[in-house]
Design a protein that fits this description.
By secondary structure, this protein is α/β, with parallel strands linked by helices. The chain has three domains: 158 residues, Thiamin diphosphate (ThDP)-binding fold, Pyr/PP domains (Rossmann fold); 161 residues, TPP-binding domain (Rossmann fold, 3-Layer(aba) Sandwich); 190 residues, 3-Layer(aba) Sandwich (Rossmann fold). It contains 20 helices and 17 strands. The chain has a seven-stranded mixed β-sheet with strand order 5-6-4-3-1-2-14, sandwiched between helices. A five-stranded parallel β-sheet has the order 8-7-9-10-11. Helix 6 links the parallel strand 5 and strand 6. It binds thiamine diphosphate.
Length: 563
């Protein structure tokens, strides 16, 4: 057997170059072709976790990158393993998160030589990454390649395909001394990195555009930076602030978070949209949860400015926006300096008042509407949101959990997270596991289908003990009862909800997760009383509700808060 040669040294040069570019950790999945990368990661002492399922592994990396604010690599073997990085890369690309997919490959041409576990990997993720690279590079120098990767990581994920010739292993046993990383329940030690920032001169254009308009709406979808309260209070004076609880706008007491609820009351009020329509929208983040507001904003022309450090400038309101390529906090802070000197006119004040009047009436009706609700998803979410400790991060599953969370938002709590970039249910648990491994205190509220789908999230080493997962078990995809349509197909239970009848406790046993099941408000409250106390393994709280009653309770609540 040849001495480990080209492959391992190429892997070492790549990993050390990436570490110089700020790489903060890695998630590796078992395989042979990626052995050189695994050894290089370990030899470099890079904090790492091991995850079996590559789809989950890439989401773990996403959660880690999010919590660390630092690039995180995810490394796998060749073949379909590499395709499984796709969903998390797509999510990271929408939200500008720096994950690096390192896919080991057979040597070039192997796919045509009757080699197993081969497919075309070079450029396979091109539609969902900032850049696709080959390592070692063929055209540019390694230095140029690493520079290009570093530049791309400012804006989102990259894919590096690594065709490796054998040998893939060292000829003698590795002489690394000491414990393998993460044996027992030790945790990776990560150092947070300062945000990388860019700027451009579009601010001048945006300032001019803002000066021309009276009614300004600040509109935020999911993104990872929390906007500071000083900036928000300036915007609150001059603009109407609307955003998802995951938008970073939630610390503003002026912000309208549950805008779907607002829209219902407005529609029932009989008042014309023209009374509420903004002249200009300053938007950012992932697509807004509220389809109703997006549609209303499309009915008549509104100007649109869009802030996005990764240069994604959607044509959301029928005309191209003015794009501002800058971190959201930075752009909003810069603009707020300019806005301070412009006192709002009486017309602007009364426009703002109209929005806030509807919002405060809606909020005032909330408690009574909730009190009238029977045991249901709505009540379970209310109790959970009330109880989550302030020093625990909150992740939300991508179905009704993220939508219910809008109703229970509080400006005192840290902004929650949800994978809203492409809104898949496939990696919500894995993302929370990744975040918990570096932040430690993470609560996830998810649905039963999302939990079952991402069951491999827990095939990870180590598993974070400071993770709490509340699974709202309404028998399947409860969201399909919110939609007008599935019921009329006659396929609601079988094809939409997918009533599965599985015992979540079996899955928890399998993964050695603590499991408890509650079936009403009293048992839920009792279970939560010490749910967040220290534990050796993650805790799962299964909250059983009725799908029919849950749909009914939600619709009754919405009716009550909107009249
Ligand atoms: C990967 C992926 N597959 C399918 C969907 C479509 N989808 C959206 S919500 C949902 C049901 C989720 O059910 P559950 O997690 O139980 O949450 P609930 O609707 O009950 O809140 C499905 C299948 C998706 N968003 N992502």
């Amino acid at each position: 057997m040849k001495e480990s040669g080209a492959a391992i040294s190429a892997a070492r040069r790549l990993i050390s170059g990436l570490i110089e570019s700020g790489l903060g950790g890695a998630v590796v999945s078992p395989g042979s072709r990626n052995a050189p990368l695994m050894q290089a990661i370990r030899d470099a002492g890079l904090p790492e976790i091991v995850a079996l399922d590559e789809r989950a592994a890439a989401h773990h990396a996403l959660g880690m990158a999010l919590a660390l604010n630092q690039p995180v690599a995810v490394c796998c073997t060749s073949g379909t393993a590499a395709i499984n990085h796709g969903p998390a890369l797509a999510e990271a690309s929408q939200l500008g998160l720096p994950i690096i997919s390192l896919t080991a490959d057979r040597p070039e041409g192997a796919a045509n030589q009757w080699e197993s576990q081969t497919l075309v990997q070079s450029g396979m993720h091109a539609g969902h990454v900032r850049g696709s690279y080959l390592w070692p590079p063929k055209v540019n120098s390694e230095v140029d390649c690493l520079d290009a990767i570093r530049a791309d990581l400012l804006y989102g994920p990259v894919h590096v395909n690594c065709p490796f010739d054998e040998p893939l292993y060292p000829s003698k046993t590795s002489d690394i001394k000491g414990e393998a990383p993460f044996s027992g329940q030790s945790y990776p030690q990560f150092e947070p990195r300062i945000d990388l920032q860019t700027s451009n001169d579009a601010l001048l254009r945006i300032q001019k555009a803002l000066e021309r308009q009276e009614r300004i709406m600040l509109l935020g979808g999911t993104q990872r930076t929390v906007i500071d309260t000083d900036t928000l209070s300036v915007w609150g004076q001059k603009a109407v602030i609307v955003g998802d609880s995951t938008s970073g706008l939630g610390a503003s007491t002026h912000a309208i978070i549950a805008v779907d609820r607002w829209m219902r009351r407005w529609k029932k009020s009989g008042k014309a949209w023209s009374e509420f329509k903004p002249d200009i929208v300053v938007g950012f983040g992932a697509p807004l949860l509220s389809k109703a507001l997006r549609n209303a904003l499309r009915t008549e022309a509104v100007d649109h400015i869009h802030i996005d450090p990764t240069q994604r400038f959607p044509c959301a309101f029928q005309q191209p926006p003015i794009g501002v390529q800058m971190p959201v906090q930075m752009a909003l802070a810069e603009l707020s300096k300019h806005m301070e000197s412009h006192a709002p006119t009486d017309a602007v004040r009364s426009w703002q008042l109209r929005w806030h009047d509807i919002e405060s009436r809606t909020r005032a009706a909330h408690d009574a509407a909730l009190d009238a609700a029977p045991w249901s998803d709505l009540v379970a979410h209310a109790i959970l949101h009330e109880a989550i400790p302030l020093d625990w991060d909150l992740h939300l599953g991508n179905s009704t959990p993220v939508r219910y969370a809008q109703l229970f938002h509080s400006s005192d709590r840290p902004a929650p997270w949800s994978n809203r970039g492409v809104a898949g249910i496939d990696g919500c648990s894995s993302t929370a596991v990744g975040a918990a491994l570096v932040r430690r205190n993470t609560t996830l509220i998810t649905g039963d289908l999302g939990f079952l789908y991402d069951a491999n999230a827990f095939l990870v080493h180590p598993t974070p003990s400071q993770l709490r997962i509340a699974v709202i078990h309404n028998g399947g995809g409860g969201v399909f009862r919110w939609l007008d349509g599935p019921e009329r197909t006659g396929l609601l239970e079988s094809h939409f909800e997918m009533r599965h009848g599985r015992e979540l406790s079996s899955l928890c046993d399998f993964h050695s997760l603590e499991h408890q099941r509650v079936t009403n408000s009293e048992t839920l409250r009792a279970a939560l009383s010490d749910w967040w106390s220290p534990s050796a393994v993650p805790r799962v709280l299964e909250i059983a509700t009725s799908p029919e009653l849950s749909a009914e309770a939600y619709s009754m609540y919405m009716d009550k808060v909107s009249v």
